[in-house]
Amino acid sequence: MGHSIVNKITRALLCVFLLVALGVYGQQQGCPPGLFGPGCSPCTLDAECVVETGSELATCNTGFLYDGLSTVKGYRCNPTGPSLVNSLLNPDSVVVQCHTGASQGAGAVGGFEGDGTAAAQPPASSGDGLFGRRLHQSAPSSEQYCDISFTVQSPQVTVECAATSCLMGAGQANVVCAKVSCGCSDGTCNDDLLIQNLVASADQGVTWECDSAGVVPETGRTQCTLGIEGFAVPRIETSCVTGECLVPTEIAQLEASTVEIQTADAKPVNNLSWNWILAAIPTFVLTGVIGVVGFFSYQLKAYWVSGFGMAVTDSKESRGSTVESFEFKNLCVYVRMAEQVAVQKRHALLGKALTRHDTMHVYAMNRKPNVGESVVKRAKKRLGVKTSDDVELPPEFVQKVTRPSKAMDAASQVVRLHDGRKEGEWCVLKGCNGTFAAGELIGILGPSGCGKTTLLGSITGSAMDLGQSTSLSGDILINGRPRVAHQVAYVPQADHLIPTLTVRECVKYSALLRLPRDMSPDEINDRVESVLRELGISHIGDSQVGGSGKIRGVSGGERRRVTIAMELVTDPSIIVLDEPTSGLDSFTALSLLKVLGQVAKGGGGRVVIASLHQPSKDMFFGLDKVILMGHGRMLYQGKPESASQYMADAGCPGNRSTPTAEHMLEVASNAESIVKMLRAKELADSAAGKNVSIGSPEKPRVPQKGLDGEAVDAKLCSMEADGKSVLMDDCGSDVSPVTDASLSSTGASMNEPKHSLRRELSVMFWRTLVDIVRNPTLLFLHVVLALCTGVVTGAIFYELDFTSIGVQNRMGGTFFALSFLAFTSLTTVDLLMNERTVVLREVRSRFYRPSSYLISKIALDGMLLRVIPAILYWVPFYYMAGFQYGSYYASSYLFTLIAFNCAVGAMSMCVTIGCNTAGQASFIMNFLLLFSLAFTGFLVNVNSIPAVLRWIHYLSVFFYAFEAMLSTELMGVPFTFLYTPSPGQDPLEIPDIYGDTFLVTLGFNPSDTTRDIAVLVGIYYGLCMMALAFFVIRLPRTESLPRQAAKKLHQMTAALVSRAP
Predict the structure, then answer these.
(1) Which pLDDT value is given to residue 68?
(2) How many angstroms separate the CA atoms of 291 and 307, rounded?
(3) 500, 774 in Cβ contact below 8 A?
(4) What phi and psi values does residue 978 have, to the nearest 5 degrees?
(5) According to DSSP H, which parts of 915-977 are helical?
(6) In the prediction, which pLDDT does 138 show?
(7) Per-residue pLDDT tens for 491-519?
(8) Distance CA 974, CA 812 (A)
(9) Roughly what angle, to the nearest 10 degrees, separates helices 2-18 and 46-53?
(10) What pLDDT, on the 0 to 100 scale, is given for residue 82?
(11) Whole-angstrom Cα distance, residue 633 to residue 613?
């Protein structure tokens, strides 16, 4: 390398010297093209030609045979005979220049084939040099021609002759010209009669013959004969030297520059024999996981048979747990909230309370609005937008008041019901107590936002819908002991089911995932059939659930019963339902409520609690007990028949024409009525000896700022637990904090599944596979489009040759294959989004572990929608296009394509889990894919990217797959480079240009193939782990006490309960 650089520097310096010493002087002397120096002699050094032509590859040819690259061949000759010529001409004055008609750097390509034609125009001389004024201006530009000159001794006259229509060819030394015309350069021929006659007689033709074999090595001279027909001396013998500058054609230069690269890089693919094994790891793992789970399923085949045994009797002894009494004590739910947000909620709540009265009042706030609130208020006024916190009063009602009226006072008291235990808390639920017996159906009534759903979530031990800022306290007791999670079943308001599964399959997979692992297949099957009969849906057991897509499925009421059956199959002691009649007509709702009553009384007795939005008269009186909620407080609890009298005694009588349930909702929506009901409840509890406060305005309970900005005192007590203060309201035997055995849903004991991972994976694989098979549109599109696109693409790139065009087409075909498969991965977005609500509910209810769901999803999605379509695309495309047929080459290409497709599918899954909507996920995936495409190395040479951005290509999954697949296909394979000088001309060929040369030229490193495949596989598994992490992080969870603190609090609670009378 160093020696080469020194040679280049030396050559450059020599060129500069010769440019000054030869070129400049030669131009001053008026030398014609091809002659150099003061004496206008032919070239003798390559450096002279470098200066003359400007090409570093130019060489000086001193041979007398014409070359295929010849353009201008110059001769300087000394006349040697006959004697007349020696006495007539000056020594060393004969100069001959023959033009082949080709341009420099083109040679034979330009048309110099010795056929008497030329494709390039003869170069026109300029200036007043020896041939500055040409005598053959009318000669056709396509002819080959020669310029001849000699100097007569006396008088000193230079005679110039232009010979045209010449024939000369590569490998020949002789030239024959058909026409010649002579004259004097300075016009002095007419001054001498002898010269005039001599010039006029030359009008026939010219021959130039040189003895190429008789060259004298010491001088480089040989004998040449100039014959001019009609000339007084027809043959002039001369002793000549010759020289010409040869410039390689562009294609020859390319050959010279690539010889070293071919020799250095022409080698086979690194680790070719086991690259395919590395690339096939994702395929092998997916196949292995599916095979192992299939083996598990075969071992559990008894659970999947269609036959069922005799149903067990719904006796008390058959149930896993029985209930005699169910009780919850002083349930409280607080939510952390910014003080500014809490103040705004109080103002909005006050406005709602005031608008429900017949008389409007003016509410004057002592606090001035801040700049942000003023801007928002002006914007809403200009836009005409009204929200719940805007209390607009008609002008005729605006008046200044000195003290609040009864309605204003009642609204303020209702607002204070939401004050928390400390600043920054909002009370959602407080002081809720209830005792129920087995077989009772309890209905919870109240207006929207009164706390019904929160109470149900507290009973089930999870208020996750409130978020991580939720704080729970209170006791849930079944038969006098803290309840266990599996004893309570929660049925959400919405029916989140897999539409392709049948009714029986939905209940069955719930049973398989949630019932104890020691139950036999017959017992599980009997339990499923028993539940179907109990809810009256056994006749539709084989009907698909439907409800979404093109599957109509069962009716809304039947679908709601399926949701209940999925919880009832676990045989819980308490069943909690959130508005089960929402969206149903009155008849269906009444039928469902009757079924719930039968569920409560069946199976040895259960407690069924359901929130009802607006029950009919028959539904209301079909309940065993009614709970009326208002602003997080229990306003009434008792028999439906006693509700009217109780409200009348509390000062809230109703009209006879108004149904009792509707009147109760009106009472819970009126601030004055709520205050009256709370006072009546407080009096009743005081008479019963209970120390329960309703949070009246006379006895404020919160250490927060009131509506007038003044602080209020509250009664609090605290207990230190592991350095953290645990606040409790009204510490005593009736109040206890949340313990890990009662309300906490995140304790370790609560999360332990009752079933093995083997059963989980078997059920999840079965469910996912059934869903795909019964809804085959997506799978069909993946398979058919992949196969058809592979055939079409194979036809487009059919039978690629081993030329530079074949290299380009191989790159284009590989790039298209990666792009096509990458964008088909976006179907994962819809798949996951459609199941999100179902999966979140089931994981939260501990149906299965998050990892079980993701393993089944990744395995089946990878095999059915990534591996199989990639294979179907590869088979026609690879063999129709004529890629390498060797097994190692084909398998490496295929498995790298599969690994890439799996990696992009995992990326789509990861992005979808991290996004909230399908639109967000699709947008981010499109951006990531397009951005990665820019750094593939196909659209832009990676080495040409600015250094500050070049590192990004290491993040592109396209780059690793593209480089690995191209290196496998091109490395070590000889190609023929085709060069077309200009459109319409036949291309020239340079054979044996190895694929390594193309790869290096395009910025790829062929030796990194194994590394690229390993990184691609690593990206796939890294994205799978990231998807699992995102899934776990995004699961809703509640705030739980530290485990040791919860243990201490549980011990204190047990001690207090044991001392209670």
Answers:
(1) 81
(2) 26
(3) yes
(4) -105, 130
(5) 918-934, 947-950, 957-970
(6) 34
(7) 888 888 888 899 999 999 889 888 888 88
(8) 19
(9) 70
(10) 82
(11) 17
- The DSSP-derived string for 431-490 is EEEEEEETT-EEEEE--TTSSHHHHHHHHHT--GGG-TTEEEEEEEEETTEE--GGGEEE
**pLDDT tens digit string along 614-640?**
888 899 999 999 999 988 899 999 999
**pLDDT value of residue 355:** 63
CA distances from residue 992 to 249, 270, 804 in whole angstroms, order as listed: 18, 20, 11
Closest CA to 148 of 186, 193, 197, 99: 99
C-beta neighbour count of 12 within 10 angstroms = 13
**Can the peptide bond before residue 155 be classed as cis, meaning omega within 30 degrees of 0?**
yes
Query: Distance between CA atoms of 118 and 144, rounded to whole angstroms?
Result: 6
pTM metric for this prediction: 0.64
Q: Measure CA 18 to chain center.
A: 62
User: Rounded to 5 degrees, what are φ and ψ at 977?
Assistant: -80, 125
SS3 per residue for 812-844: HHHHHHHHHHHHHCCHHHHHHHHHHHHHHHHHH
What the block records as the tokens of 317 is 């002894």
Distance CA 782, CA 155 (A): 96
Beta strand spans in 524-683 (E): 574-578, 607-611, 625-630, 633-638
State the residue for tokens 């075969």: 298
Identity of residue 751: N
The residue whose two tokens read 């805007």 is: 390
pLDDT for 140? 40
* 136 close to 203: Cβ distance less than 8 angstroms: no
The 3-state secondary structure of 351-405, one letter per residue = HHHHHCCCCCCCCCCCCCCCHHHHHHHHHHHHHCCCCCCCCCCCHHHCCCCCCCC
Which uninterrupted H or E stretch holds 562? helix 556-568
How is residue 76 annotated by DSSP?
E
Q: For residue 370, what pLDDT is reported? A: 56
DSSP state letter for 540: G
Whether 582 and 548 have beta carbons less than 8 Å apart is answered as no
The number of beta carbons lying within 10 Å of the beta carbon of residue 179 is 17
**Could you give the angle at which helices 957-970 and 272-279 cross, rounded to 10 degrees?**
150
Task: Check residue 817 and give its pLDDT.
Answer: 96
DSSP symbol at 739 = -
Q: What is the CA radius of gyration of the chain?
A: 49
Say what the pLDDT of residue 209 is.
Answer: 92
Which among 1012, 944, 1022, 1006 is positioned nearest to 973, based on CA atoms?
1006
Question: Which residues in the chain land under pLDDT 50?
Answer: 1-3, 5-6, 8-10, 12-29, 108-111, 113-141, 255-266, 307-320, 358-367, 388, 391, 393-403, 463, 691-753, 1038-1049, 1056-1057, 1059-1061
Please check whether residue 995 is in contact with residue 963, taking contact to mean a CB–CB distance below 8 angstroms.
Answer: no
- CA dist 419 and 290 (Å) reads 55
Locate 100 and state its tokens. 């082949």
DSSP, res 143: S
DSSP state at residue 54: -
CB 100 within 8 A of CB 155: no
Give the pLDDT of residue 369.
56
Q: How far apart are CA 808 and CA 806, in angstroms?
A: 5
Q: How many residues does the chain have?
A: 1061
Say how many C-beta atoms besides its own lie within 10 A of residue 816's C-beta: 16
Amino acid 184 reads: C
Give me the pLDDT at residue 723, please: 33
Distance CA 554, CA 564 (A): 15
Task: Please state, in angstroms and rounded to a whole number, the distance separating the CA atoms of residues 1026 and 1024.
Answer: 5
Host H or E run for residue 227: strand 222-228
Query: 10 Å Cβ neighbour count for 987?
Result: 14
Q: For the chain, how long is the longest CA-to-CA vector? A: 158
Supply 991's token pair. Answer: 């054979």
